[in-house]
Amino acid sequence: MLAVLCGDTRPPDMRAIEAEAVVRYTDAAGLADALSGADAFFVYDFLSTAVPGAWHAADRLRWLHIASAGVDPVLFPGLQESDVVLTNSRGVFDGAIAEYVLGVVLAFAKDFARSWDLQKQRRWKHRESERISGRRVLVVGTGPIGRSIARMLRAAGMSVAGVGRRAREGDPDFGDVYASSELSRHLPGADYVVAVAPLTEQTKGMFDAEAFAAMKPGSRFVNVGRGELVVTSDLIGALRDGSLAGAALDVFDTEPLPAESPLWTMENVLISPHMSGDFVGWRNTLVEVFADNFRRWRAGEPLRNVVDKQLGYVPSETLRQG
Prior knowledge:
The protein is α/β, with parallel strands linked by helices. The protein has two domains: 2-92 and 280-321, NAD(P)-binding Rossmann-like Domain (Rossmann fold), CATH 3.40.50; 94-271, NAD(P)-binding Rossmann-like Domain (Rossmann fold). The chain contains twelve helices and 13 strands. The strands form two sheets. An eight-stranded mixed sheet has the order 8-9-7-6-10-11-12-13, with helices on one face. Helix 5 (94-109) crosses helix 7. Keywords: NAD, Oxidoreductase. It comes from Amycolatopsis japonica. Residues 103-276 form the D-isomer specific 2-hydroxyacid dehydrogenase NAD-binding domain. InterPro entries: D-isomer_DH_CS (IPR029753), D-isomer_DH_NAD-bd (IPR006140), NAD(P)-bd_dom_sf (IPR036291).
């Protein structure tokens, strides 16, 4: 039996799966009842925080799949200590998020927001814009999404380096990868810092006042990872005092972003509502990824995107093998 946690809508085109298994669709309120007796669990509502509270009812569960790349909503001690296999949806959002990052880099460099404001005022005001070619980017997070970002920015002529768990040279996408423990040493050299690291105990709050103070004057910060990577009050302070020239933020520690947040009215901030990876058809693609793993699970074949529950992400070695 398969339990599926839904939000406002059910996942599209589940007919092939429904033909192979008994499927229980549920919202957060009914999750405990749906988990009782379930062998597999599809967390389609990947922003839900309901799973830990209903975990006591998971009496037969062997596999949990989440419809996102990040697994922090389901990475709690009960799951980590269990024998339940955890898989995610890595690979779905890589290209779309990379396009988003290139888009906001260009928006900052070409001052598109100001052009739009002047257009609405019917004002002709000539300005000079920046080149992005040759500008240095530090991508913090070297998983598949970070790699896709690195490839796209390199193709646009930017100089890219990465920050990951281990330092290494000669990486095909990043060139140099610096250890995350040495992040503060490499922040001063970057014109753009892109946060795309998974949320773990080690990365939570990694962008704080100290990190922003280390960044190059005039640099910009882009967060397409998790809101909790950032100490929001410290980011606001850095934007206000001019330590940062701007920020593009797609994720926040509180979502939706509260109406009273100062970020809404800052002229040097671009805000999007956690949508950098959501291209037309993305929900269908998420179901396709789950359906492929569901077929593998039913056939006893190795699953794709198996998460190391202690690390909180799919190890790179596993990705290469898959």
